[in-house]
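Escalated from tier 1: FE2/S2 (inorganic) cluster holo job.
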Amino acid sequence: MKALFQSYQSLAEASIAQAKALPFAVYHDKSVYEEETKQVFRSEWVFACAEQQLSKPGDYFAFDMAGELIAIIRGKDGTLRALSNVCRHRGTPLLDDGFGNIERNIVCPYHAWTYDDQGKLKGVPFPGDVVVDKEEHCLPGFQLESWMGLLFVNLSDKPLSLSERLRGIKEYLAFFQPERFSNGYHGETEHWQANWKLAVENGIESYHLFKVHKDTLETVTPSKQSFYVAGSSEWAITGGRMVETQSKLMKWLSGSHPEAYNHYLLIFLPPSFIGIMTYESFDWIQVLPDGPERCVIRSGGIMEYSGSYKDKALEQFNADFMAEDKAICERVQRGMHAQTGHGGKLVSMEKVVVDFRQFLASRLFNSVPDDFFQSEQAHIFLTE
Ligand code: FES
Ligand SMILES: [Fe+2]
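Tier 2 regenerated the structure:
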């Protein structure tokens, strides 16, 4: 087992010139999965949802983060909190996974212990002669930080600040004026039979678009027109030129950055957030592990106008390319059990995959990642 961790480390540390595919076993091995759960999902800032998706008091988003059940709730006081979503009586999950509104209180589906929107225990039915100390039975809270409206949870007690880790990204996004995007939407939740890292690697590289998405994404955002923008192990941005310039009007409106409005940016905040920003919207997927060979993919986004996402053709387009991604990731997962042979060289378009590996290596093995890199094309997006 030690040998697997050693080869995981040495391959994950490599720079793009030397980078090769990781040992196949890291995509199904249980001890690797446990180590990633501990060092990444229980120690890092992990994306949950956006503030704009929880606009009303009582709105919540409940999800399973590598076994820890979490609910982010907007209280009646307007404050967002991340609480444990597990009943303090005998451990029943309280709110169903996904988005909803708690209306009055959180009521456990087992024996109806009742909590308020801040996790305080309010009521215990039929306690008999026994006294249940309400103060002692509140739902524990987790660290929650908002960055550009995106909400991240951290299970460690005193994490390093997220905004510090993400310093420098905003200057590449500024010309899209993302502060306009005040309406959130909830997309689909999918279960893929693939290790979470396969889904992430697939989501961040544009190398596969021309093959896997020949009739979908490639017609809008071709592989050949994609490029690296800037990044490191802490965050990375790639981008590309859109062939289909639906945004001709936007181009005309765009003032000082006409060129940038024909482009998209793909923003990767490891471990779990992959977002595409254009002038029209900021759409994302969230990748969460669900055992060594399964993951959960949840889509969502924010935009300027409410309801504009309900375009049937666009919904179909999204469903089509997501199905293509699911099929290819599940296919690769089957290859990961092969004992003979091993993965090959990564190409230039996969630099962002190298950033992800270096993120993993830094968290799992304390490796020192490569320096921040900015490409020539970054100037398209920068104001000054
Ligand atoms: S487990 Fe929740 S009330 Fe019993
Ligand atoms: Fe894809």
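The first helix runs from residue 2 to 13.
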